[in-house]
Each structure stands twice: as structure tokens, then as C-alpha cells.
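Researcher: I'd like a candidate sequence for this fold, 381 residues long. If you have to choose between options at a position, lean toward the conservative one.
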């Protein structure tokens, strides 16, 4: 007998549900009308189709029940917006994020990639009267694959320095190069990356005592002597865009025994100076930036890692704001903001993996207009 469409869809059940099977449901089992896997599927499909609040997702569930029943029974229909908010508020955010990481690791392997780690504040996730500050999420971004690899919420009264090692612990980064801005330029973080059999390129600013001053003085003196005393590798690029010419010169050296002895930085193999000059019709701007790395002094490779790091701003943070309207999201209760942010990262990954040259914004509209397109986003190929 021919199999029903629903049975075939069930066989191709979305990968993310399998990864979230270990997620604890804190609700009392005897009173659960809406199974957790159905709730997660509803919210993911709703976000893919453009929903940005519990009210919109609840309405989506009412209108798309036939679509949802391709994958799960939904015997009692779908939850109200209040029920959705309550469920997501009590789901453990750390466990939710670990399930996400397990899901994304099943999508694609991580091989010699550049992984950028950076934070973003969800501006409207605060509670009125100062009861709770906006939450801050740390994300790991695959610069080559343009995918979110994982995220973690910065705990209240904590900071990125504590959260970054927790995120690194959850990731498989062997063979990768991890890039972090100056906040993450910490010995403990460098040691964690080395222990995970990865390499680092860390931006160096004034938060490491005299280390930045020592590196800047070193490069200044050596440049004045035309680098006669040390071996360097140099790589330069010139780009013209929007009426502006930008020149970048990357200088890297591994002749830093004195620096290793003075500062005892874990895994340190090279230091890097990036000179940038931006010229436009009416002004010329210059900037010097310094980095520590566990990689050899290959200026081309190190320069690529430095540039790739900023892809997290345009590829992730900007997309979350402009396509998924992060800064307008008013979900605020308990764990709900962090969990909803994780679902949006999941939706972003699925949209990026979908074939075609359409923008993410257009793909979300297609998902809203075409049930078959939406279903194809979440089913196995």
C-alpha cells in the first residue's frame, strides 16, 4: 500500500528534533497538552516563515496546522502565545544551547576553519524598572561556512571573559583558528584554545598591562631600523570601494623570545602588526592594530584571519538585527530571550544552507508563502 505523505515526512523528520531529544521538559508530564518536540518544531517553522513574537508564532500555528501535521500529530492543536512564552521561559538555556551545538555539528564538519567569537547584546531583553539587564550572548561563527556554530548567554554579574571558555568547552575546534577581539585576549582563554588543539589570533589592546605597550614599542623600534634585527613576513593588500582606497600592510614575526620570557603567554608563536590606511576624497585615516597568535609568522594567513573575524559583524550580528529584528524583539521573561535567540540562529543556519542565490530576507518570505519550500528547509535531503 502506498505510504501517506505524512508517513514519508515523518521518516525525514527534521534533524534538529533528534538533537533536542535530551532537552529536559520541566513541565509536569501529566498536564502537558503540547509535547516539547511539537512546540520546538512550531517555533522553528514560525521563525523561518518570518514570525518575530509569541503572538505571531501562535497565529502561525493556527493557520498552518496541516503543514505542521506533516511532521508531528499535533493532536491538541498548537499552544497559545502565553503558553509558548511560559514554555520557553523555563527551558534550561545552557542545555538548549548544548543541543543546538550538537545539531549544528551534525550539519557539517569543522575542518581548518576560522572561528570568530564575539558578543552581542539583545537590547530589548531587559525588564522594566531595572529588574533585569539586557542579556548578552557570545556566539561562535564559522567564517568559511557562514554558520553559527554555537552560543552561550553571559551570566548575570559576569562577563565575556568567563563565558568564552564555557563556549569553547562545548565546541569541536580541533585544527581551527579562533579569532577573538581584545576582551578575549586572556591567558586562560589562549590556554583553553591550545588545549582544544586549535590556534588563536587575539586582538591586543590595553587590557593586558604592559603587553600591548611592549609589542607596539618593539614594532616601532624595528620598523625604524627597517627590521634589520629580526626576520619578518610581510603582506600588503589594496582595495578600492565606494570611493575609498584602503591599504593594509601585515607584518608578522616569530623573533619574540624576549616577549615569551617576559609575559609567559600560552602557545605564543608570533606577533602581528596591521597598518591600515583609508583614503577618501576629503580625508586620510590611519590605524595600527596588534595581535598575538599561536600560528607561525605567515603574514598572508594571519592577515586573512584578522579580516575574517569581522565577518561575524556583517554575517551574523547585522543579519540578526536587520533580518531577524533582534533589537526590536520584546521577549524578556526568564530564559525565553536566550532560547529564542538560539532558535533564530538555527533558522539563520537553515536559510543559509538552502539552495539558491536569494537573500536571507527573501528566503524567509518564500518560507512564509510556500509550504513546500518551508518544509524543504527542515527535512533531510
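Model: Candidate sequence:
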Amino acid at each position: 500500500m502506498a505510504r501517506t505523505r505524512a508517513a514519508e515526512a515523518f521518516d525525514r523528520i527534521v534533524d534538529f528534533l533528534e538533537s533536542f531529544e535530551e532537552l529536559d521538559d520541566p513541565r509536569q508530564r501529566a498536564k502537558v497538552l503540547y509535547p516539547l518536540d511539537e512546540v520546538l518544531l512550531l517555533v522553528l517553522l514560525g521563525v523561518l516563515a518570518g514570525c518575530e513574537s509569541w503572538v505571531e508564532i501562535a497565529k502561525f500555528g493556527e493557520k498552518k496546522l496541516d503543514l505542521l501535521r506533516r511532521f508531528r500529530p499535533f493532536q491538541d492543536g498548537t499552544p497559545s502565545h502565553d503558553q509558548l512564552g511560559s514554555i520557553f521561559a523555563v527551558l534550561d538555556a545552557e542545555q538548549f544551547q548544548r543541543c543546538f551545538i550538537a545539531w549544528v555539528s551534525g550539519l557539517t564538519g569543522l575542518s581548518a576553519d576560522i572561528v570568530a567569537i564575539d558578543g552581542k547584546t539583545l537590547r530589548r531583553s531587559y525588564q522594566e524598572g531595572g529588574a533585569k539587564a539586557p542579556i548578552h550572548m557570545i556566539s561562535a561563527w564559522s567564517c568559511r561556512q557562514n554558520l553559527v556554530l554555537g552560543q552561550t548567554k553571559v551570566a548575570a554579574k559576569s562577563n565575556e571573559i568567563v563565558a568564552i571558555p564555557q563556549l569553547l568547552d562545548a565546541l569541536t575546534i580541533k585544527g581551527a583558528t579562533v579569532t577573538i577581539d581584545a576582551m578575549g585576549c586572556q591567558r586562560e582563554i589562549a590556554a583553553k584554545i591550545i588545549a582544544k588543539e586549535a590556534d588563536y589570533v587575539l586582538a591586543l589592546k590595553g587590557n593586558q598591562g604592559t603587553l600591548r605597550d611592549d609589542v607596539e614599542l618593539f614594532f616601532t623600534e624595528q620598523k625604524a631600523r627597517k627590521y634589520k634585527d629580526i626576520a619578518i613576513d610581510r603582506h600588503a593588500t589594496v582595495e578600492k570601494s565606494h570611493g575609498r582606497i584602503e591599504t593594509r600592510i601585515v607584518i608578522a614575526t616569530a623573533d619574540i623570545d624576549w616577549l615569551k620570557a617576559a609575559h609567559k603567554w600560552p602557545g605564543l608563536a608570533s606577533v602581528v602588526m596591521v597598518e591600515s590606511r583609508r583614503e577618501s576624497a576629503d580625508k586620510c585615516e590611519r590605524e595600527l592594530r596588534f595581535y598575538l597568535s599561536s600560528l607561525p609568522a605567515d603574514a598572508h594567513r594571519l592577515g586573512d584571519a584578522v579580516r575574517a573575524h569581522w565577518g561575524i559583524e556583517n554575517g551574523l550580528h547585522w543579519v540578526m538585527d536587520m533580518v531577524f529584528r533582534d533589537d526590536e524583539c520584546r521577549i524578556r521573561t526568564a530564559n525565553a530571550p536566550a532560547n529564542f535567540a538560539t532558535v533564530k540562529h538555527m533558522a539563520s543556519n537553515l536559510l543559509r544552507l538552502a539552495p539558491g542565490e536569494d537573500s536571507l530576507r527573501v528566503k524567509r518570505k518564500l518560507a512564509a508563502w510556500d509550504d513546500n519550500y518551508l518544509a524543504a528547509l527542515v527535512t533531510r535531503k
